[in-house]
Amino acid sequence: MNRWRFQRLSNRGLLYIGAALLVIQAAFPFFWMVSTSFKPPVEVFAQPPTFIPHHPTGENFHRLFTATNFLAYFWNSVKVSGLAVLLTMVVSAAGAYSLTRYQYRGREKIAGLILCTYMFAPIMVVIPFFILVKKMGIENTHFALVLAFTSFCLPFTLWLMRAFFKTIPVQLEEAALVDGAGRVRAVIYIVLPLALPGIIATSIFTFILAWNDYIFTRILITADELKTLPVGVQDLFHSALIDWGLIMAAGMMITIPALLFL
Q1: Could you report the per-residue pLDDT of 106-116, keeping only the tens digit for each?
Q2: What is the DSSP string of 57-80?
Q3: Per the domain annotation, does 158 fall within a domain?
Q4: Residue 1 domain-assigned?
Q5: Is 217 part of any domain?
Q6: How many domains does the chain have?
Q7: 122 by DSSP, 3-state: which?
Q8: Is residue 165 in some structural domain?
Q9: What is the pLDDT of residue 112?
Q10: Which of 36, 150, 5, 137 has the alpha carbon at shortest distance from 82?
């Protein structure tokens, strides 16, 4: 009995140790980024390195906001990500409603085909997409970025919304229709409120993907004033001596909005 209990406690202890190591491995880069962002330039390159700043300062953030275009990049990311979320949710909700409420031939095959398109990596579609937007005359615009993010996120978000809509009983809509409500009113006042958790989860997924995107912005945007944060911050690596304090401050500011939605 004691041997069995000792073995169970040992296994549990090893499990906790392994979990703690994984947490440390995942959290240490973020901790180092935060620590470096508050270090003065001299301490950033100090040997041996310091894990906690001896003389914490906000100089890196001050230079980030005043000496770079960070605020413009930040606003561009907020605008593009917000519009991408709005457009993606409208289209995916309409598509998911069609796939769950209307009966037509090939409905399930269409749903499977939509999900299969999500398997294409962005690098496979970014060049054809660039050619398309160039022919449309909308290259180097935020509108092109919104379309790119929407087209990339839409297959998976539509599939997620379809799964949430399938959990909502059709009888609720039928009862509303019997009471005199139209189809649009039934969707607005019954389906969407019940699907609100799914809408929020899908919106967060879309926002994080659009917020962190690099490849579409790098290919489609050339004007500095239109760049988003991932590309704009990457351009800070422009000298032989990299200003790690400034870059870590920028990385911290990029990470915070995404963490707020986790």
Answers
A1: 777 887 887 78
A2: -SHHHHHHHHSSSHHHHHHHHHHH
A3: yes
A4: no
A5: yes
A6: 1
A7: helix
A8: yes
A9: 80
A10: 150
